[in-house]
Amino acid sequence: MQASPASDFRRALAQFATGVTVVTTCDAHGKPIGLTVNSFNSVSLDPPLVLWSLALQSGSLAAFRRCKHYAVNMLAGDQLEVAKRFATRGADRFAPSDWHEVNGLPVLDGCVATLIVRNRSRHSEGDHVILVGEVEAFTAPGGSPLVFHDGRYFASAVEAPLPPALRTPWR
Prior knowledge:
By secondary structure, the protein is of the alpha+beta class. The protein is 16% helix and 43% strand. The chain has helices at residues 5-13, 61-66, 80-87, 164-167, and strands at 18-19, 21-26, 32-37, 41-45, 48-55, 69-74, 99-102, 105-108, 113-125, 128-139, 146-149, 152-155.
């Protein structure tokens, strides 16, 4: 059986290693929602902008289109089970007590960094929506990140110490 151009393209993209994030917000009823995302990227330092993309068929699309803010939780190397739980359809993603609220948003504990982001703009492209947000607050305790490459998760062995100013909670 011959691979399709789409599957070949997906395989090529899988060769790019990315960090792993869980993006969280609340739905229209105030219920926490979130999903594992590796399409996260920085856009600008001034103003501080980031982006990520969400599939048009995602069940959480309406909530992320509507929300005013969301949190980008950059996972640590020891958070593999968190990444898998938030990537599993139908999973009770917020059942464990490994999260808390910051400014009304669900934020995961133990991350190498967390950003509180204002939902600034959305752009439909292909089969995804690109969400661009402005970072309003962040915390960056640092540590070894969780990495995704070639369809597999890896706990990074590299730990870059952060300057003390970045380790201060919620700048």
